[in-house]
């Protein structure tokens, strides 16, 4: 994808760097030349530009970019101004960082329907992870259905289970098993009869599971 990230603060720079590492064509934009210079080696492309200036903004690939992400969160007015200009100039997809209900309401009012609140999202994820011992990452599919990756629990070390028996016992689906940074098992690559193959769990394995939160909790407290 061709993505323009406007604002290279902590969030914007992190987003631009990760997208670049994933192979996307990223243009990082900031009005601070020092930031632009600092990140030029880790973001695909960077440019120093005042995105609140309509004439300067027109220099960006408004029609070619697949998405513009306005990463500015500490200045309500500037964020809305840039988003409004992008919508006016016909950017196909505008995603904005927001940091309050008022900010969100104004963005929605000018036609921005995709928003990000990284502070809230981080807090929500951490709040869900805290009671779950050993969880490294958690992804919410719905309020109750989660995908988690965790260090193999002590009670599983040395055990052998088939994928189908594991699911029957725990009501959780094994999505992947990683060992020493290598993928040992992946449900995406599994053959039709792969459920009959036994997996031996070893110390320091990482297990990726999908299922209801109540079943994940029950599994972790065996």
UniProtKB/TrEMBL annotation:
GO terms for biological process: potassium ion transport. Coiled coil: none annotated. InterPro entries: NAD(P)-bd_dom_sf, RCK_C_sf, RCK_N, Trk_Ktr_HKT_K-transport. Residues 1-117 form the RCK N-terminal domain. PROSITE patterns: RCK_N. Pfam families: TrkA_N. PANTHER family: KTR SYSTEM POTASSIUM UPTAKE PROTEIN C, POTASSIUM CHANNEL PROTEIN 2-RELATED-RELATED. This is Trk system potassium uptake protein TrkA. It comes from Aquipluma nitroreducens.
């Amino acid at each position: 994808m061709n993505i323009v990230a406007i604002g290279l603060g902590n969030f914007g720079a992190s987003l631009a760097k990760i997208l670049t590492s994933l192979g996307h064509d990223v243009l990082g934009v900031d009005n601070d030349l020092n930031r632009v210079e600092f990140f030029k080696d880790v973001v695909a492309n960077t440019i120093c530009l005042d995105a609140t200036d309509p004439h300067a903004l027109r220099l960006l690939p408004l029609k070619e970019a697949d998405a513009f992400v306005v990463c500015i969160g500490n200045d309500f007015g500037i964020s809305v101004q840039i988003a409004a200009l992008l919508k006016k100039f016909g950017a196909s997809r505008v995603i904005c960082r927001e940091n309050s209900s008022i900010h969100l309401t104004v963005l929605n009012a000018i036609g921005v329907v995709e928003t990000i609140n990284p502070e809230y999202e981080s807090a929500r994820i951490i709040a869900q992870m805290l009671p779950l011992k050993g969880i490294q990452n958690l992804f919410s599919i719905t309020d109750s259905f989660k995908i988690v990756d965790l260090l193999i629990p002590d009670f599983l070390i040395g055990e052998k289970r088939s994928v189908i028996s594991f699911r029957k016992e725990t009501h959780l689906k094994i999505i992947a098993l990683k060992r020493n940074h290598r993928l040992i098992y992946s449900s995406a690559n599994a053959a039709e009869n792969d459920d009959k193959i036994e997996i031996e769990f070893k110390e320091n394995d990482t297990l990726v599971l999908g299922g209801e939160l109540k079943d994940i909790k029950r599994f972790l407290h065996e």
